[in-house]
Automatic annotation (TrEMBL):
GO biological process: DNA repair
TM spans (from-to): none
Organism: Scylla paramamosain (Mud crab)
Pfam families noted in UniProt: FANCI_HD1, FANCI_HD2, FANCI_S1, FANCI_S2, FANCI_S3, FANCI_S4
Region: Disordered, residue numbers: 682-712, 1187-1285
Protein name as it appears in the record: Fanconi anemia group I protein
């Protein structure tokens, strides 16, 4: 019965159509296998052996797709052991190469049933490798260029065939994934093996991130038990890949050692496209991963490159998924809403929601109830996040009346909330309605000033966006909103500030509301003005600042009110034609009246306040200005209000009036009056110094080196940039050029006025980090203007011939610092539009390369830097040079690493470090960091680390006083004074290099188990080259007389990292011997091991002894003092670092010994095995004690040991070395303090035994100690006390 089915699949015969034998075959073979002995053709064998012979025979026969499916269904019921299953899996692997795509799913299904829980990892690996190879084959066939002599008709046929194959392959993938997912529901071993596959591939992104792997992983997330583990593994792999991508952009060595060809973006896009064929289970997992990636983009960690790339990937995937599978939109919106409401930094989630609204607005609107629930919790969001959310949903408000009405009601409730921030959100929401629901004509001012209650009747106004404009409905809506905002005049001053700051943007977006807004503001400003001729101060401070008992309240932010009024009037004058063209039906008389009254208000304020004294303003110069009393708070608020009023008047002059010789005196007069207020508050707020110290006090009375304003300026960055452009920029080819030169001469040379403007810019830049994305976008135009003006100013003036003018040097330094900060903002926050931004800043619109633009900035910085370095009085300008070097560092990081311009910058910086000596630690550190960064970007291997280490060894000297060090003067930047700074930078670079080495070694170890075509010989060559350079540098450093302090800690840490990296490299070879046969060590690796022993392991213990000795000497000198306490604390810290270093050394040597046994090559040849303990055994003292014990009793021996004060055992953090070429032998006097007499007594025999066990791997140099101990144990077996600390 068994022979019949075997004959049915013999070669040369087609399988019979009657396959009823299949049902009997498994039963018969299983029955025979249970027999203890069977006879086959006269041969006796066990039943299991016969079954193995049958399976082997079946596997040797050729299988068609139909036969393979039938046989696998038979084998499924045979319960084969793992060895026989391996043959079946191998046979299926051969069959898969010949069958078409449609036959693959049933084969995989039956194979999974055959294997079940015995070898699921082999099936997974077979399926993954098969589909990945098919994808590569499909991509290569599509990428091949067709020959030009092929007819168009043939090409169309070929494309149709390829499309058909691709469709069949995609369907086969989906079916196989469905089979595996279904099997995983009741067989957890399959998911566990897949998790192992993912974790083993976490260092090899190209192995894990493939379309089939991703689809399978997302599908397996349907198994809830393993869902989080799968998603976490994918997220970790992606973040690790993004971090490596960032490192490779700044390191040529890493690009050469391990060039990653993984295209994460295209792999995910392909997976999303395949999801359109009904892979619902894959889509759900993809959505969950995208939300998980968004979580990595929040808070401070969201500013890293890896987090930003993760958020970008999630922002790409979610809209694509929704477009192909719209039924997932509700789940996505719900998750985004939960994240927005619960996250402390919901910015990235709102960005994704905004993309979804723009990509599929109608699909999102189908679930507007979810959005409405989110808006109900709007008041719980931060102000910036709530504003961004309203802006993201704004397109939907124009499409859905119900959603708009719901939001209007929510905002109306929030306007009367107890929380001030909720009221601010409501104001911004209404302002957004005014901006985006535009009207055809300006509203009549009488209607604009209607009461709030009469305007509520129009809440159900419908906005028909399908027409171009609906003037009547939009007018009614704007009428309502202006009535609502009118009620804000009775709110807190924070709410009013929000209103005033947003009204200009309303006028710019909806120009037909300018006059209405101006009239609204003008009517409100009359409450706080006294414009009578006999009034000295037109500002009624009693109404602006009110006292209620012990509390003082700022009732009106008058400066913001006047600034908003001035900005609206300036916009009207600038766009008069645009506004007038649509205002044909408007009341011209009313418009003229509003404009005239506004101009009259500002003219009277300027006239009365320019040159006004403090007494005329109502400010008591002898009054209390402390914040501890009600009177002091009132005086402070009065002064603050008047200062902001002066800011608004300056803003009005520069916005509405063309600068002329008549306006310059007015500007300076207003500025001087404002400075009187600032000087008064500054003087009142100064704390007196300690009694008797006078101006030399170092206590609380010490004045700040840089004057600071007592309160924030009211000037906006937009206006400040325009003022800087007016006072500093050179405008050629315009009328009145002489007048403009006069203005620039007067205002540009006024140091106080220029410093005030620069302080305003610095204050705005300091708060840039906390702004939302939309707020940053609004500040981009003034930032470009400021950068352009100040960069030109610095290029012309920095490093000028006269460096004795301290005020001018301070102004230029602050300007340079602002330019550097703005450049950093451009490169960090505006990467996507950096080229366009730099074109505007440099005025080079014809340049089409970002690297060229960045190089131009670097060249200008170089020009200023050389001017400073060749200046006669350069010491006072070296701070400016440091800023310039940091700016070059910023722009060079954004340059293309393949650009020859970057190499040019590196060569120039290298030459500068060789030629110049700065005697400035900050400049030296900045220049060397720049040099290391540029060298790593353009060169895979450079000798700069070793050369600088030689320079350091030469300047610091050797820690052995009798050793002479060869002098090296290649780098002028390295001097005895700058050596500690250079050492710190060099150690940081060594740490970075070792981290990269460990990264590549981890990839190599992962590639061993993963297989694949990796050029490991090339990678190993790169590692050996890098390690050799690092070892050479560390060799010079650890022989130097290191300065006591943090540099010693850093050095010990770096050497520890070196041994950890070397241990990881040795583990790679251990894995190689474990996984592969016929493995041989490379000669370069053996040389590297010998190099590590000669150059590092040898000098490291003398370095530890040197550190210990110097530490004790300094501690003894400073004993009992505060400095001595600090040194003792540092000694405790170093005592923790040294054992870590010793452990790393011994672990490295242990791995080498293990590798020597496996390779049968003595890698320890020439290396001296060293030990380090809490005590040191002095052999000579031990022998003397034993000899003395022969003539004395046990008590006498203890007395003798007491007289010797523990010479047999002493505490020491150093190692024992017996080599003759070492300066310190084991018989040298101990460097540690004496052992206390309270130590415990130990049995000498047991101590010798334990010591022998610890030193089994000692080299021949330590045999003297072991022989001495053996001799003692044989001659005297009595007890002896060893004292330990």
């Amino acid at each position: 019965m068994v022979s019949f089915p075997l004959s049915a699949v013999k070669p040369g015969k087609a399988p019979t159509s009657d396959l009823r034998w299949v049902d009997l075959m498994a039963k018969t073979i299983t029955s025979v296998s249970h027999k203890e002995e069977v006879t086959v053709e006269g041969l006796k064998m066990a039943g299991e052996d016969y079954r193995y012979q049958v399976v082997k025979t079946l596997c040797d026969l050729p299988w068609s797709a139909e036969t393979a499916i039938s046989l696998l269904s038979v084998i499924k019921d045979m319960d084969l052991p793992k060895e026989e299953l391996e043959d079946v899996i191998h046979k299926v692997k051969e069959v898969l190469k010949k069958v078409d795509y449609q036959s693959v799913p049933p084969l995989v299904y039956h194979l999974v049933q055959v294997v079940h829980s015995k070898l699921p990892h082999r099936v997974l690996q077979l399926v993954i490798n098969y589909f990945n190879k098919q994808d590569l084959k499909m991509e290569s066939s599509q990428g091949q260029d067709h020959s030009s002599d092929i007819r168009t008709e043939d090409l169309m046929n070929d494309d149709a065939i390829e499309d058909s194959k691709k469709t069949d392959l995609t369907e086969a993938k989906g079916t196989v994934i469905l089979h595996l997912t279904h099997h995983a529901q009741y067989n957890p071993a399959l998911v566990q093996d897949f998790l192992k596959h993912m974790r083993s591939s976490i260092w090899l992104t190209e192995r894990l991130v493939t379309p089939f792997n991703l689809a399978l992983a997302f599908s397996l997330t349907s198994v809830e038990k393993f869902q989080d583990k799968i998603l976490d593994s994918l997220k970790s792999c992606l973040l690790k890949f993004f971090r490596e991508e960032e490192q490779s952009q700044h390191c040529q060595w890493l690009r050469d050692a391990w060039a990653s060809d993984c295209d994460v973006r295209s792999a995910f896009i392909t997976t999303v496209e395949n999801c359109g064929m009904g892979w619902d289970q894959v889509s759900q997992g993809l959505v969950q991963l995208a939300c998980g990636l968004l979580e990595s983009g929040g808070g401070t960690k969201g500013e890293t490159y890896a987090s930003q790339r993760a958020v970008e990937l999630a922002g790409l995937l979610l809209p694509l998924i929704i477009k192909r599978q719209p039924h997932l939109i509700r789940s996505v919106i719900s998750q985004l809403s939960c994240f927005i409401l619960s996250s402390s930094s919901p910015e990235q989630y709102i960005v994704i929601l905004e993309k979804l609204v723009r990509a599929v607005p109608l699909t999102v609107l189908n679930h507007h109830d979810v959005l409405r629930e989110t808006l109900e919790y709007l008041e719980h969001l931060p102000l910036g996040a709530a504003t961004h959310l309203l802006l993201a949903l704004n397109p939907l408000l124009k499409m859905n009346i119900a959603l708009k009405d719901s939001l209007m009601i929510i905002l109306r409730k929030m306007l009367f909330s107890r929380k001030i921030e909720s009221r601010q959100i409501a104001v911004r929401g209404f302002l957004q309605f005014l901006k985006y629901f535009r009207v055809m004509g300006t509203l009549p001012s009488s209607q604009a000033s209607m009461s709030f209650s009469s305007s509520l009747s129009s809440t159900s106004v419908n906005v028909n966006v399908h027409s171009v404009f609906n003037s009547s409905t939009n007018e009614a809506l704007c009428l309502e909103l202006l009535g609502v905002l009118r009620r804000c005049f009775s709110q807190q001053q924070e709410v009013k500030c929000t209103l005033y700051q947003g009204l200009y943007e309303v006028c710019a977006a909806n120009p037909h509301l300018v006059v209405s807004v101006m009239e609204l503001l003008l009517q409100h400003s009359r409450t706080f003005m006294d414009l009578r001729p006999d009034a000295l101060n037109p500002v009624q401070l009693k109404r602006v600042v009110q006292v209620q008992g012990e509390s003082v309240i700022l009732q009106e932010p008058l400066g913001d009110l006047l600034s908003a009024l001035a900005a609206c009037q300036a916009y009207y004058h600038k766009h008069r034609d645009l506004v007038a063209a649509a205002d044909g039906e408007n009341d011209e008389d009313n418009v003229v009246s509003v404009l005239n009254e506004t101009c009259s208000l500002f003219d009277k304020l300027i006239e009365k306040l320019s040159g006004c004294d403090l007494g005329d303003m109502g400010i008591n110069t002898n009054g209390d200005f402390s914040s501890g009393s009600a009177a002091g708070k009132k005086n402070l608020l009065n002064a603050q209000v008047m200062a902001t009023v002066f800011d608004s008047l300056l803003e009005y002059i520069f916005l509405t009036k063309k600068p002329s010789q008549e306006t310059v005196p007015t500007v300076l007069s207003l500025f001087r009056s404002q400075q009187k207020i600032v000087d008064l508050i500054t003087e009142k707020n100064q704390r007196p110094g300690k009694k008797g110290e006078g101006s030399k006090t170092r206590g609380r009375g010490r004045l700040p080196s840089k004057p600071t304003a007592p309160f924030k300026s009211n000037l906006s960055l937009r206006v400040t940039a325009d003022i800087l452009a007016t006072t500093l920029a050179e405008e050629e080819g315009q009328d009145g050029e002489g007048a403009n030169d006069s203005i620039r001469t007067v205002l540009g040379n006024n140091h106080g006025f220029q410093m005030y403007l620069l302080n305003v810019v610095e204050i705005n830049l300091s708060s840039f980090k906390g702004l939302t994305r939309l707020e940053r976008e609004k500040l981009l135009p003034p930032l470009k203007t400021t950068a352009k003006i100040l960069l030109e100013e610095c290029i012309g003036c920095v490093g000028g011939p006269d460096a004795s003018d301290v005020r001018e040097v301070t102004r230029l330094r602050q300007s340079l610092n602002i330019v550097a900060t703005i450049m950093s903002i451009f490169c960090k926050h505006f990467k996507h539009k950096l080229e366009a931004v730099l074109k505007d800043v440099l005025g080079k619109t014809e340049v089409s390369s970002l690297s060229v633009l960045l190089h131009k900035i670097a060249k200008r910085c170089r020009k200023m830097l050389l001017r400073i370095l060749h200046h006669k009085e350069r010491d006072s300008l070296l701070k400016d040079a440091t800023i310039l070097v940091q700016m070059i560092n910023t722009v060079s990081q954004s340059m293309d690493y393949n650009s020859p311009l970057l190499r040019e910058v590196q060569e120039w910086v290298l030459q500068l470090s060789k030629d110049q000596n700065f005697d400035n630690p900050a400049l030296t550190e900045a220049l060397l960091k720049l040099l290391f960064q540029l060298s790593d970007q353009v060169k895979a291997n450079h000798s700069m680390t070793w050369e600088l280490a030689q320079e350091l060894h030469s300047k610091l000297g050797d820690h052995k006083e009798d050793t002479e060090v060869k002098s090296h003067d290649k780098y002028s930047v390295v001097t005895e004074d700058s050596a500690p700074t250079v050492l710190g930078v060099t150690l940081i670079h060594l740490d970075t290099a070792l981290a990269l080495v460990e990264l590549v070694v981890c990839k190599m170890r992962a590639s061993l188990s993963a297989g694949g075509n990796y050029d490991l010989e090339k990678v190993e060559q790169c590692i050996i080259t890098k390690c050799s350079a690092v070892i050479s540098g560390i060799h010079e450093i650890i022989q130097s007389a290191l300065p006591l302090g943090s540099l010693v800690d850093h050095t010990l840490t770096t050497v520890t990292k070196l041994y950890n990296a070397l241990s990881s490299y040795v583990k790679y070879y251990l894995d190689l011997y474990r996984l592969r046969s016929h493995t041989q060590l490379s000669e370069k690796f053996e040389k590297l091991v010998k190099m590590s022993g000669d150059l590092v392991s040898g000098p490291v213990y003398p370095m530890i002894t040197y550190i210990d000795t110097i530490q004790r000497q300094v501690s003894d000198m400073g004993k009992g003092t505060k400095k001595g306490t600090v040194l003792i604390t540092r000694a405790i810290k170093e005592s923790k670092l040294i054992p870590s270093l010793i452990f790393a050394v011994e672990r490295y040597e242990n791995h080498l010994i293990t590798l020597s046994r496996k390779s049968r090559i003595n890698l320890m040849h020439g290396m001296k095995v060293s030990t380090n303990r809490d005590f040191r055994i002095m052999v000579s003292a031990l022998v003397e004690d034993i000899e003395g014990e022969n003539g004395e009793g046990e008590n006498g021996e203890e007395e003798a040991a007491g007289r010797k004060n523990g010479n047999g055992v002493t505490n020491s953090p150093t190692s024992d070395r017996d080599s003759g070429d070492e300066d310190r032998s084991v018989n040298s006097p101990p460097s540690s303090p004496d052992v206390s007499s309270s130590s415990k007594k130990h049995n000498f025999k047991s101590s010798s035994s334990n010591l022998a066990q610890k030193r089994k791997t000692m080299s021949q140099e330590h045999k003297g100690i072991a022989q001495s101990q053996h001799q003692v144990s044989q001659t005297k077996k009595s007890k002896m006390s060893l004292k330990r600390k």
